Amino acid sequence: MWTRPVSGTVDGVQTNPAARARALTKVYGTGDSRVVALDHVDVDFHSGRFTAIMGPSGSGKSTLMHCVAGLDEPTGGAVFLGDVELSGMSDNQLTALRRDRVGFVFQAFNLLPTLTAWENITLPLDLAGRAPDRELATTIIEAVGLGDRLHHRPSQLSGGQQQRVACARALITRPDVVFADEPTGALDSAASAQLLRLLRTSVDDLGQTVVMVTHEPAAAAYADRVLFLADGRLVDELAAPTADRVLDRVKSLERVRV
């Protein structure tokens, strides 16, 4: 029987959750078409840690991330970003919260084609009427290795370079949490490794909190811990993951479901 660790601890070290959910439920449809995507999920995402979320297709992993990030409204339960509860917030309040306190890295990059790499990176700050922190911007640009590509538009960049621009954009606001939904899905193995090392570096060197949905054991191995979902429930957790340990756990869960 899997037992969740004591809330607020990771490997025995006390940490504060950057985001958390309590009894989080998400239901789509009614009657015969009713689908329970999340079934009373309790989870903490600890500050300064890298968490990967895994599970079979339809397990609820992306739904969990979208609800915690304020992109989707849960059917029941509560979601907190730091000490701020998201339920009851207006659309404008949620928009401001996501802009100021959350970073996003998605598989589709979501870059604006008419803007340069630098303009895409600083877009969230521009929308908020804030100037970039030059020291932080320099650190991030060096980390993503795009110093000679800042004036190029997305069409002039490779897929890996575009994804690194998207990652820099997510980090430039110093968000409470960076959410990454299958960020390596459209990349080759070399570009994937570069992006994952960047996310790992943002945690180790910048103190960032990262939550990543992935189906790749090699990607999950970059995280501090891996959460496993099945049928809308958290069913297992793995600390200090390696690709082999993650793959073994995935196979074990698949055997249980059969």
Explained architecture:
The protein is built from 9 helices and 12 strands. By secondary structure, the chain is α/β, with parallel strands linked by helices. The chain has a single domain (47-71, 89-257), classed as Rossmann fold. The strands form 3 sheets. The protein has a 6-stranded mixed β-sheet, with helices on both faces. A 4-stranded antiparallel β-sheet has the order 4-3-6-7, covered by helices on one side. Helix 6 runs parallel beside helix 7 (189-206). The protein starts with 8 loop residues before the first strand and ends with a helix.
Task: Write out the CATH superfamily name.
Answer: P-loop containing nucleotide triphosphate hydrolases
> Whole-number radius of gyration?
18 Å
Mean pLDDT: 89
- The helix count comes to 9
CATH class: Alpha Beta
> Which regions contain 5 or more consecutive residues with pLDDT less than 50?
1-11
Question: What is the makeup of the main sheet?
Answer: 6 strands, mixed
Number of folding domains?
A: 1
Separation of termini? 18 Å
Number of strands: 12
Binned, the helix content reads 25-40%
Q: Which class of secondary structure composition applies to the elements?
A: alpha/beta
Cross-sheet strand order for the largest sheet: 8-9-10-5-11-12
CATH architectural category: 3-Layer(aba) Sandwich
Succession of helices and strands: EEEEEHEEHEHHHHEHEHEEH
Here the CATH topology equals Rossmann fold
The geometry reads as: globular
- Percent of sequence in beta strands: 25-35%
